Amino acid sequence: MDQDSAYWKKGVRYTALSDIGLRRANNQDSYAVKIASNARQWLDRGHLFIVADGMGAHVAGEVASHLAVETVVQSYFKRTGESPPQALVQAVYDAHRIIKEKSRREDAYRDMGTTCDAFTMLPQGLLIAHVGDSRVYRVRDHIIEQLTFDHSLVWEVCMVTDLPFNQAPSYIPKNQITRSLGPTEKLVVDLEGPYPISIGDTFLACSDGLSGQVSDREIGELLTVFLPETAAETLINLANLRGGPDNITLVVAQAIESPATTQEVDAELKIPLSSWVVLGTTVFLGIGAIFGFILGNIPVSSLFAIITAVMIGFFLMLTKKSLFEGSPFLQIIQSGGKVPYTKTSCAPSHEFVITLSKILQELREATKGQQLSIKSDEANQYEKKAVKAVESQDMVTAIQNYALAINHLMRELKKLSSKKNK
Asked: Of the ranges 81-95, 238-252, 313-327, 407-421, which one carries the lowest mean pLDDT score?
């Protein structure tokens, strides 16, 4: 992750994690984070976040997802002549083309594919380019909203039959997707947004390894009570404690303040003194070319004219970000569907406290049964704080401490497991 960007990263707190899960031989998920590094990039392209869930035999899915995130990042930032909505969608199409071409050339990668969720946080709001059944959520004011449509057989049937997405017939395969980068012949990329961003909004992009095991409400409650880093760790632990049948990947981005003041943007876009020196030299050379022509010295006039043209190009290159600000949006893009597709209350609840308490107890019992030597003093302290919080009806503190106890035990288990495998 590009944590070295200057003050432009201060407007967003983010984290990204990927876990192999408990039943997969390799991790076929990929992610990318690209934080704007200057004023021009913030205005034109914003901060970019991507999650891709690959599919295919052997390492094909891993290759597909890696190609997707790599291509989208490169293409999105190279398409400087296009608006962010156009560039984001076209970048996903570029990834689709490259994956398809590699699949056709090499038998080992035949029919490989991947989902792709790319969202960018811009001054004008949030934009999402989406293909597949990975998801993008927004959490705001104790409400979690799904901002993307699952390109899956289940959701397609629900849309046609006008059924709520959580009431699909059980006989419909849940893991059958209808759209992906690579295999889909006539791909359509969903573009959602722009959605205004408020301070405190939290956005999550995740593979179905998370959303298939942890409910929207639980995801929202954890993103409400924790900063992105701790929330991400807890979400992955919950998915694994519920079987971890798939790879689990997530990117969390929280708007914490305005990315830059007007003064900072103006300073970044101000034409530097060196550019004015170049302009002055260019004018002088231009005058020399004119006088040379008037005096009939064509060779000198031609030389000065050529140098002047080069200097003009150099000046424009140095100052283009200041002279040609323009609007980051050439057109307003309306949402492609009935967004949000789902909307769920995620206020910290006693119900979730009970769930976490049970998970903690089951985890303790599981470690005892395997006679594992787990250091649980810290987890015990968290649990005591959680019990006191429940007694005082402080659900936020209760959720936080039960989750921290679970995270501690999971870290200890991983340490023990790595020692045994050595």
From this structure: 313-327
Radius of gyration of the chain (CA): 26
| Residue 193 dihedral angles phi and psi, to the nearest 5° | 115, -175
**Cα–Cα dist 106/28, whole Å:** 18
- Residues 117 and 180 both lie in one domain: yes
pLDDT tens readout for residues 159-196: 888 788 777 777 788 788 999 999 998 999 999 988 98
Number of domains in the chain: 3
- pLDDT over 70 for what percent of the chain? 78
Q: How far apart are CA 172 and CA 155, in angstroms?
A: 10
Task: Let me know: does 118 contact 91? Beta carbons within 8 Å.
Answer: yes
Interatomic CA distance for residues 128 and 83, integer angstroms:
14
Identify whether 330 is part of a domain.
no
Taking Cα atoms as reference points, which of 79, 173, 174 lies closest to residue 129? Answer: 79
User: What is d(CA 376, CA 353) in angstroms, rounded to the nearest whole number?
Assistant: 20
- Among the listed residues 69, 68, 55, the one whose alpha carbon sits nearest the alpha carbon of residue 27: 55
